[in-house]
């Protein structure tokens, strides 16, 4: 069993349920779902390297401090 098998499975079920989601929303879902959670680096590596997930764009905005934030939007790859 790979280290990230449960994480990949949960991301897969979440994206099939909602369609598209940004990296922060996926991370929040995973960290609520599992006791141990995941880091942003782990999540980014899983999303970028698994062919079932595809980057469809970027979400841009600002946070509380006025800093610009740019996060990727992910979806399921077409079969």
Please name the defining characteristics of this protein.
single chain, 79 residues, alpha+beta, Arc Repressor Mutant, subunit A, three-stranded antiparallel beta sheet, 3 helices, 44% helix, globular
Could you describe the 3D structure shown?
This protein has 3 helices and 3 strands, in the order αβααββ. Helix 1 (5-18) crosses helix 2 (23-33). The protein has a 3-stranded antiparallel β-sheet. With 79 residues, it is an alpha+beta fold. 44% of the residues lie in helices and 28% in strands.
User: Beta-strand level of the residues, as a percent range?
Assistant: 25-35%
Structural domain count: 1
Helix content: 40-55%
Structural class: alpha+beta
CATH top level is: Mainly Alpha
User: On the 0-100 scale, what is the average pLDDT?
Assistant: 92
- CATH H-tier superfamily: Winged helix-like DNA-binding domain superfamily/Winged helix DNA-binding domain
User: Low-confidence runs (pLDDT<50, min 5 residues)?
Assistant: none
> Might you state the CATH topology name?
Arc Repressor Mutant, subunit A
The run of helices and strands is: HEHHEE
Strand order of the biggest β-sheet: 1-3-2
Note the total helix count.
3
**Which second-level CATH architecture applies?**
Orthogonal Bundle
Biggest sheet overview: 3 strands, antiparallel
Number of strands: 3
Coarse morphology: globular
In short:
The chain has one domain (5-76): Arc Repressor Mutant, subunit A. The protein is 44% helix and 28% strand.
């Amino acid at each position: 069993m790979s280290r990230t098998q449960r994480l990949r499975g949960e991301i897969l079920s979440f994206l099939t349920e909602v369609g598209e989601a940004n990296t922060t929303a996926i991370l929040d879902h995973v960290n609520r779902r599992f006791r141990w959670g995941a880091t942003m680096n782990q999540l980014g590596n899983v999303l970028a390297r698994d062919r079932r997930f595809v980057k469809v764009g970027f979400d841009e905005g600002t946070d509380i401090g006025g800093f610009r934030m740019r996060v990727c939007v992910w979806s399921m790859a077409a079969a």
